[in-house]
Structures are given as structure tokens and as C-alpha cells.
Design goal:
The chain is α/β, with parallel strands linked by helices. The chain has 15 helices and nine strands. The strands form three sheets. Strands 2-5-8-1-9 form a five-stranded parallel β-sheet, with helices on both faces. α10 crosses α11, α10 (227-237) crosses α12 (267-276) and α11 packs across α13 (283-295). The chain is elongated.
């Protein structure tokens, strides 16, 4: 079998904005992340990404889809959204037994009702496995799933094929396809000439995944970006914003992450906060306050200096960064001694 090489162009873009006229959002990937993606594609293995929530794991699936895809549909990943009730079958296919029963009771087409293939719809993972190598499948936040789900996917990820038990008594002829034109059979086997789709699996590490599952993946942990990377991210996402303001936003953001919060703000929240400044009633005044606030931060503690007279309450757009009441209390107590005395 010839080597599979993932050719990546120099510019990377994440999920498009909902507004079709909005500029594409540039994605700034870690260079080792690109190498991990190349390895996963070459080996036909899933790419397992971990890291803090909001660090860009999901967006990277969009980056890969836009790199691999040749059509508009292929440039969008097939997204499997995982919940606490998700089963492996839910990612592969759906069999609508209730609709079949209703058709039978209402005297529908007998030939249609008799063949259960007419009531099967492939889900995102099943569809991606059948469509092949130009597609990207995203299994998002797999650590939210029931404990059995990763184990139930072992052979599917290993072999790239699966079975639909409801079709065990159905012959292959005449052919029946789902709405995407994929032939449906008891044994769903992909066309080897198409290759494997690139499967991206994300996890916030809320719990450990089984070792046999990990063994079948190419793994990469997204480290938290440094200040230079964060400035590049803001420049890519908000190219019209003043770069000096963005530098102050990044330094303030990093100082906030020093404060031992229960939920430190993420990269996604930095982007939201930076964008929020222009939506405030007086954007120019808010920008000036951010600049003054950043200059007042103590390098050792990451807190506003006592001489500045500022507290974290004075930071414009703080609700975009701090999401827990206990963290707001902690910042208020540290920034204003009067609160400590009053308590």
C-alpha cells in the first residue's frame, strides 16, 4: 500500500463564522500537533487530543477538514456529539423501529416495511467510515460518554467496519442505500481504495480512557499557549484591533491565570474578551482602561499594584473571563483589602 501523506498548506483556518461575509478565522497550531495529525493520517489511526477546555481541540478538526476536503461538504467535519447517554451504535447508525411499526399499522408499502434497510440511517462515524479518506470525523468530548463506549469502539476503530444487527436477515439484493447514497448491509465494510477517514477524538480528561483504546490512537496534548502564541492568535482572529492593546490584553489574561482560580480562563475566553471591548458602550475608554490596568500589574503577583488604585472589578469585560462566583470573590478579596476587613 502506498504511503499516505497529509499535505498541509501554510495557512490554517478553523470553523467558519456563521456570517458568510465574515473573514475566515485563522488557526495557529502547535507545530508538533501538525506532526501528530500527519502520523494519524498515515497510520489510519484516530488522533486523540487532550488539553484545557477552549484550547482549540475542536477547531483543529475543522482545520483538517478544510485541508483534506475537495468539496464543500468534505470541508466540514462529521461531528459526533457525545453525552452521558451516548452508545457506540448512536455514532454509527440509527434504526427507526417506531417509524417502521407505524408504517406497518397504517398499511404502508408492504415491500418497504418488510425490508428494515429502509429504516436505517448512518450516523456521522458510520458515514465517515464508508466515505473514506478525504473526510474528517470528530468525536467530541469522549470523556463525557459512558465508561463502555470507548471499549465498544475498539474493533470499529481497528478494522474500520461494523455490523447492523437489525439487518442480519436481509440479503444484499436488491441494493438499498441510505439518504447519503451509501449501500446498507448487515456487514458494513468500507471500500479499501478510499482509505480511512481521519478521526479526531477530543477529551477534557474528566476521566481516564481505557488503555486498549489509547493504544489504538495517536495522542497529542495541547499545551497552553505562551504569550507570543496568544498574541498571534488575537492578531489572526482580530486583525483590525490595535496590536498594542492586544499585547496588554494578553499580559492581563496571563496575570489573571496566575490567581489560582477554580476555573482559569481559556484561550477561547481570551478571544471573546478581546472582541468584547468593541461592543462596550465606550470602546475607547474601555481600551484605555485595559491599557492602564495592564501597566499597573505587579510582575511577581499578577495583581494590580496598590498605588494604581485599581482592582479586578475595574477590568472591562471581566464577565467574559471569570465564570464562577467563588473566583469573583477571590479576586475581589485580593484586589480590595476593605472587602477582607468587612468580612
Amino acid at each position: 500500500m502506498p504511503s499516505k501523506i497529509l499535505h498541509l498548506v501554510p495557512k490554517y483556518y478553523g470553523k467558519p463564522a456563521t456570517d458568510p461575509k465574515a473573514p475566515l478565522q485563522e488557526y495557529v497550531p502547535h507545530p508538533h500537533l501538525l506532526n501528530a495529525a500527519r502520523l494519524a493520517y498515515a497510520l489510519g489511526r484516530p488522533l486523540l487530543l487532550t488539553g484545557e477546555p477552549g484550547c482549540g481541540k475542536t477547531d483543529f478538526a475543522w482545520v483538517l477538514a478544510q485541508q483534506l476536503g475537495q468539496t464543500r461538504d468534505e470541508r466540514r467535519p462529521l461531528i459526533c456529539r457525545v453525552s452521558s447517554q451516548t452508545r457506540a451504535q448512536d455514532l454509527l447508525y440509527h434504526y427507526d423501529a417506531l417509524r417502521r411499526l407505524a408504517d406497518a399499522q397504517l398499511g404502508g408499502d408492504h415491500a418497504l416495511v418488510r425490508d428494515p434497510r429502509h429504516y436505517v440511517e448512518l450516523r456521522e462515524l458510520g458515514l465517515g467510515l464508508m466515505r473514506g479518506g478525504r473526510w474528517v470525523v470528530l468525536i467530541d468530548e469522549i470523556d463525557k460518554a459512558p465508561r463502555d463506549l470507548p471499549n465498544d469502539l475498539l474493533h470499529v476503530l481497528e478494522d474500520g467496519e461494523f455490523r447492523i444487527p437489525e439487518l442480519s436477515r436481509v440479503t444484499a439484493e436488491p441494493a438499498v442505500t441510505d439518504r447519503n447514497g451509501v449501500p446498507l448491509n448487515y456487514k458494513m465494510k468500507p471500500d479499501d481504495t478510499l482509505g480511512r477517514p481521519l478521526i479526531v477524538i477530543t477529551s477534557n480528561v474528566e476521566r481516564q480512557l481505557p488503555e486498549p483504546f489509547l493504544r489504538r490512537c495517536v495522542f497529542f496534548h495541547l499545551p497552553f499557549p505562551n504569550e507570543d502564541d496568544l498574541r498571534r492568535i488575537l492578531q489572526a482572529r482580530l486583525p483590525d484591533q490595535d496590536t498594542k492593546l492586544q499585547a496588554r490584553q494578553v499580559s492581563t489574561f496571563m496575570a489573571l491565570r496566575q490567581q489560582k482560580l477554580t476555573k482559569p480562563p481559556s484561550t477561547a475566553e481570551l478571544r471573546d474578551w478581546a472582541d468584547s471591548i468593541r461592543h462596550l458602550p465606550k470602546p475607547s475608554a474601555a481600551s484605555a482602561t485595559v491599557m492602564r490596568f495592564a501597566d499597573a500589574l505587579d510582575e511577581a503577583t499578577g495583581r494590580p499594584s496598590a498605588e494604581s488604585g485599581l482592582s479586578w472589578r475595574d477590568l472591562p469585560g471581566l464577565p467574559c473571563l471569570v465564570k464562577l462566583h467563588e473566583d469573583l470573590q477571590r479576586l475581589g478579596a485580593e484586589a480590595d483589602p476593605r472587602l477582607t476587613e468587612a468580612s
